[in-house]
Design a protein that fits this description.
- The chain has 399 residues and is of the alpha+beta class.
- It has three domains: 41-218, Nucleotidyltransferase, domain 5; 229-292; 296-392, 2-Layer Sandwich (Gyrase A, domain 2), CATH 3.30.1360.
- The chain is built from eleven helices and 13 strands.
- The protein has helices at 3-20, 23-36, 40-47, 84-96, 129-135, 137-140, 173-182, 221-292, 296-306, 336-341, 375-392, and strands spanning 52-58, 61-68, 71-79, 104-109, 115-122, 148-154, 163-172, 192-195, 311-318, 323-330, 346-351, 356-357, 364-372.
- The radius of gyration is 59 Å and the shape is rod-shaped.
Length: 399
């Protein structure tokens, strides 16, 4: 099998599968509806695609018919007894009288000269129907496949049907070759061979009994134009899509740049706000520290009032957490906690470690920690102490 045969088989399968779909009927209806919207002159130009020159041999004359959308009419005749050059010139004059001389040329024969058979084949044979018919030719007709020219038409059927109804038309090859050789002087190149449907000069069956290798290799300018227009449409579509994507990408990049700028501005504002808050906190730190922490003079005054005369301090320490630590000697260190609890400035006195006697001074060595009262608590305690003082007798002893 040659590459051309394989390609023809694949194309036939694609055409078969396409014919099974509703698309052909839809496109036919759509094209008809669109054609009705066009002016009459444009519809006439589009209808010229069905125009053709139909050739028919009657005796020793070649009758030339002009097929158009309005019907079929005789254009002229060519005498087959004339020399080939005269036949060719006569046929050229008939063609030259037409507005579109390069019409398809189809040789038509009487349908009674053909053998027609109605066949029922399995639906699976539709993809390779021509080869199946050639294989079945000697069983369905008195001829072998190499003795005839044939063509077929498949009746419309649904995709679920299991059988195909095929109308096979066969003509003897030798007889048709003789007729085509007789008119070769006038029309050596044919596009196909068809049959009259009823009478000569009427409708035709729409077959093509001529093998593909003997058909005129016509340049399909309309197909080339359609392919070029289709390619241009695809290129324009791809270009439009790329432009649209480019515009969307540019818009996205611009939006991302705006968002990044806004985020950067927001970060700068947040940083400035934090810097301002830190500056305010730093500026207010000393003020709060001064406001929240009692003066050292008040601390010394309060300790002087609370500690008895037999007590003296060796060490006084105040850390950054307002924790006070005092170390010293006293005749009775155990009573110091009770005395310090009466302070309006200090709170939470507690002995660290154990009270030990000092052998040199015969006094108790102590280590006591305290906390500053809050300013508001200290003021409240001082006010309460001042209110109780007149009724409480004389003050506590001081140093």
């Amino acid at each position: 099998m040659t590459f051309t045969d394989a390609l023809d088989i694949q194309l036939a399968r694609l055409r078969t599968r396409y014919a099974r779909t509703p698309l052909p009927r839809f496109f036919a209806w759509w094209g008809h509806e669109l054609a009705l919207l066009l002016p009459a002159r444009w519809r006439g130009l589009l209808a010229e695609r069905a125009d053709a020159l139909l050739l028919d041999a009657s005796g020793r004359e070649l009758i030339v018919w002009r097929q158009s959308a309005q019907g079929c009419g005789e254009l002229g005749r060519v005498n087959l007894d004339d020399p080939p050059e005269a036949q060719k010139a006569a046929f050229a004059r008939l063609r030259g009288a037409l507005e579109a001389p390069d019409l398809r040329r189809v040789y038509c024969i009487d349908g009674a000269r053909t053998l027609r058979r109605a066949l029922s084949l399995p639906a699976a044979a539709e993809d390779n129907l021509r080869q199946v018919l050639a294989f079945e030719m000697d069983r369905q007709t008195p001829f072998k496949a190499d003795q005839v020219y044939f063509d077929y038409r498949v009746a419309p059927h649904g995709a679920a049907e299991r059988n195909l109804h095929v109308d096979l038309t066969v003509v003897p090859r030798a007889q048709l070759d003789a007729e085509l050789a007789a008119i070769a002087g006038a029309a050596p190149m044919l596009d196909g061979v068809d049959c009259w449907a009823d009478v000569r000069g009427g409708a035709r069956l729409g077959l093509n009994l001529l093998p593909a290798d003997k058909r005129y290799a016509r340049k399909n300018l309309r197909l080339r134009l359609n392919l070029a227009l289709g390619a241009a449409a695809v290129v324009l579509l791809v270009t439009c899509m790329q432009l649209w994507l480019g515009n969307r990408q540019a818009a996205l990049e611009a939006m991302q740049a705006d968002v990044a700028k806004a985020q950067n501005d927001a970060k700068q504002v947040s940083q400035l706000r934090k810097t301002l808050q830190d500056t305010i906190d730093s500026a207010n730190f000393l003020s709060r520290k001064k406001h929240d922490t009692p003066l050292m003079v008040d601390l010394l005054e309060d300790l002087t009032k609370r500690l008895p005369d037999d007590t003296y301090l060796e060490r006084l320490n105040v850390d950054d957490k307002d924790k006070i630590e005092i170390q010293g000697l006293s005749d009775d260190a155990s009573k110091l906690i009770g005395l310090l609890n009466q302070s309006t400035l200090l709170a939470n006195p507690s002995v660290q470690g154990t009270i030990q006697p000092d052998p040199r001074t015969k006094k108790d060595r102590f280590n006591i920690t305290l906390d500053f009262r809050a300013i508001a608590d200290a003021q409240a305690a001082a006010a309460k102490a001042a209110a109780i003082k007149p009724a409480g007798g004389k003050n506590a002893p001081g140093r």
